[in-house]
């Protein structure tokens, strides 16, 4: 893996510079120089300050015996800036008196698990965990995800940490930074935690098949190919599928390479899904699995090359969960289809609770429902983030695939043959739109129409006007229960216009039975919002005029 360098210069920064690094419940920034217009924002001193701030935040939360040393595990994906940031984060933790566990190349779900695992030999459970990743973003980006045994940190926690980091950073001097190097009395320990995490996944599949012996191979005879996209998911082949007896020839892009030379490691990306589909067909495999960079998202492909992602993946996992927990509530993000609702509620007998975009929003909503007495066992986004109650509400792409492998293994143990057909059959009856469109209507923040206001206020005004237009049109039906944006049914399909969680953008999703109906829905939006001059309508115009 190529080395990457970043300036260690400690430049004066405002608190706002730190807060700009917040991306919902994550921290993201540019860690590698060389891309025009993208200056480095995640330097070593900044990363060190953030780690020190996390240590202070963690100490406040734990409020335990001050004489007891705390530990934090650190892992990273395959990005070229990983080693540099790991060193900076380690230094920040050690300067705060925290023992450090180095996991090296790891998955995001494994980092959370390290705060739950009870294994004194490897120093677990850790009091906290930091994953160095920027998911599927380009090679020059990187960032941090934080965990305790209560789960991933929320938006308010991240803001708190960044505010603390700003204060810490501005007390650092170049000389003081050098003086900290190697003076701490705390420990740094290298741990092969991925072997422990993978062993737990193997045990889960063996248990589901009724064979819980250490040498049981419930996937023997299954040909399963994996596409890790040169991220952190390559372990799944040798450490999970291999011990379970699966044939894995044809698996690809397993070696970590932070330049991501083959395709973006993203289960929503068309090129990525084409790559795993082709691998399944070329190798005549029974099943294909694809992960994102840090393995908190995944998707699959059946033996015929049919993609099992987005609504199909949600339908498949819902079918399995509703077999185990009849009538339970399935929480999803806002862009799931009407066909999925019918499938979950009419065919499977569950309840579909469509909530907001953002994996943490979806997970937190499922937890909230359980707290008020509404049983929910699955929270899942169309992006491939899926979290189960049985797995501590962790969005774990590997565990999601294990649920599918459990089904294959248990079917084989019951004498059912047919490869991945047992999974494909579970989504039979899912109604899918012939036309699916996703557009992004950008808000020009420098436009006079904003009158010095925020893009969020402007976007809310657009949505309110659209809502008023829809209310006066008898051909359209506004969703009676909706938590995000304006969702409308009409012309045999639906559309959702919402405000992005972080960016000056109004994403528009349309599903329709034909191009003509899709255009009719697009025209409803176009006519309603065309008076908002700061809104870039070019993608909407293109959709309307090409049909």
From TrEMBL:
This is phosphoglucomutase (alpha-D-glucose-1,6-bisphosphate-dependent). Belongs to the phosphohexose mutase family. It comes from Spinacia oleracea. One of its GO terms (molecular function) is phosphoglucomutase activity. Monomer. CDD domains: PMM_PGM. The lineage of its organism: Eukaryota, Viridiplantae, Streptophyta, Embryophyta, Tracheophyta. It catalyses: alpha-D-glucose 1,6-bisphosphate + L-seryl-[protein] = O-phospho-L-seryl-[protein] + alpha-D-glucose 6-phosphate; alpha-D-glucose 1-phosphate = alpha-D-glucose 6-phosphate; O-phospho-L-seryl-[protein] + alpha-D-glucose 1-phosphate = alpha-D-glucose 1,6-bisphosphate + L-seryl-[protein]. It holds the Pfam family PGM_PMM_II. Residues 23-165, 217-305, 310-411 form the Alpha-D-phosphohexomutase alpha/beta/alpha domain. GO terms for cellular component: chloroplast stroma. InterPro entries: A-D-PHexomutase_a/b/a-I, A-D-PHexomutase_a/b/a-I/II/III, A-D-PHexomutase_a/b/a-II, A-D-PHexomutase_a/b/a-III, A-D-PHexomutase_C_sf, Alpha-D-phosphohexomutase_SF, Phosphoglucosamine_mutase. Its cofactor is Mg(2+). Keywords: Carbohydrate metabolism, Glucose metabolism, Isomerase, Magnesium, Metal-binding, Phosphoprotein. The gene is LOC110776176. The keyword Isomerase applies. One of its GO terms (biological process) is glucose metabolic process. It is an enzyme of class 5 (isomerase). Its EC number is 5.4.2.2.
